[in-house]
Amino acid sequence: NVIFADIECVRASKELDINSREFELFQYKNRNRDTGDLLPDLEVVELYKKTAALSPIFGKVICVSVGFVVDNKFIYKSFTGTESEIITEFFNLINSSGKILAGYNFINFDCNYLLLRAAANNLEVHLNEKMNTLGKKEWNVSDNILDLMLLMKGTGWVNYSLDEVAYLLDVDSPKDGVKGHQV
């Protein structure tokens, strides 16, 4: 009764144009919080290359992969295409499946990212209660989403990476070979 899901993201622009609104917003977002000083242009461009994919404002979804069990057989599917197609197909699967969503840091990252990118693409996708996070606390959303990071965190305050948890449990890391920043 579970669909495991994960998204892959890249920065929205291959190269950041220093004369763009995107540059201005990204530079301000990454200012020195104590002094308000802005980073020099070249540092902003390099930081954008390294971190923009992690923000639904400056990044975009390039793939959603899902896995689930049907008749004791594991099914794996990746949604690719335009960002709009990817999000629409994924939401259609979630809305029609009746299954619980599961992922690692899915509530705070994947779910939020998908919802904001759906808005950016002007998608009028009607979500069922599973991914509706509007006005809810993380622990209220977890009735519909099994977030494995929250399970590992428990009542503690430290978030552990998926790679760290794989190490702890002595299982092969799904992050071997390619790290998120290399996507």
Quick synopsis:
With 183 residues, the protein is of the alpha/beta class.
Task: Reconstruct the topology from this structure.
Elements: E1 2-11, H1 21-29, H2 41-51, E2 59-70, E3 73-79, H3 83-97, E4 100-103, H4 106-120, H5 138-141, E5 145-147, H6 148-153, H7 162-168
Parallel strand pairs: 1-4, 4-5
Antiparallel strand pairs: 1-2, 2-3
Q: What is the average per-residue confidence, as pLDDT, rounded to a whole number?
A: 88
Distance between the termini: 30 Å
Tell me the overall shape: globular
With helices defined by DSSP (H or I, 4 residues minimum), what is the helix count?
7
**Quick one: how many beta strands?**
5
Which consecutive residue ranges, at least 5 long each, have pLDDT under 50? none
Largest sheet descriptor: 5 strands, mixed
Q: Rg to the nearest angstrom?
A: 18 Å
Key words describing this protein structure:
183 residues, five-stranded mixed beta sheet, 7 helices, alpha/beta, globular, single chain
Plain-language structure description:
The protein is of the alpha/beta class. 37% of the residues lie in helices and 20% in strands. It contains 7 helices and 5 strands. A 5-stranded mixed sheet has the order 3-2-1-4-5. The longest helix is centred in the middle third of the chain and has 15 residues. The radius of gyration is 18 Å and the shape is globular. The model has no long low-confidence stretch (mean pLDDT 88).
